[in-house]
Amino acid sequence: MKRFSFALILLVWGAVAAMAQQSEQRGLTEVASAPDAHGLPAIEVRLLTTTLNGADDSPVTNVKLVIKNVSANFYNYVTGWATFYDSAGMRCGEGLFKVDALATGESVETDTPGLRLRCSPASWRIVATNLLTRTSDVAKPAEAEPPATEAVAEKPGPVNFIISIDGEEHPIQLNNPVVLRLANRNRTIVLRSAP
Question: Closest Cα partner for 78 from 43, 121, 123, 107?
């Protein structure tokens, strides 16, 4: 009885997943959309290349897409898959798309290099794999210089570091060399700040 119940649950989950996938497929002239991690609409994608006649011996290798940011987020990086299906619902090709810097309400044209479409598709869908947003306000103007009447903090003095090699500690300061004997040879180590 337990096995029967488990098999029935798996069958129902599979049917629901298949129905959900079928409901995501769109006609080639329809706009496909993808949600963000919270399930809210993030991007909408429209096919610019609608005449797609691929075959096993001559696959379509690229299509043009228009991606629109329909969310309230600015995306620094967007990637996803455009998947195509024949009239029987069988997948017959997929291609990766990528966009850098997509503002709210902005649309951009891109393509799907690496696509190998082996049919004349009847429907398609998209899946967003990366929707990277800003982590801070990088467009914020720089802080204004403090007025001359305010005291300005002094730069910190030299910073001391310790290099520990096999438990033996050696002090080192920025731009001051330290000479260590390693494997019967003297080695000069200089710690500098990056430009």
Answer: 43
- Which whole-number Å values give the CA distances from 14 to 18, 25, 115, 124, 126, in the listed order? 6, 17, 28, 20, 20
DSSP per position, 78-130: EEEEEEEE-TTS-EEEEEEEEEEEE-TT-EEEEE-TT--B-S--SEEEEEEEE
Give the span between the Cα atoms of 102 and 106, in whole angstroms: 6
Structural domain that includes position 166: 160-189
HSE-CB of 32 using CA atoms within 13 angstroms:
28
- Evaluate whether residue 166 is within a structural domain: yes
pLDDT in tens, 172-183: 777 777 777 777
Q: Are residues 33 and 79 in the same domain?
A: yes
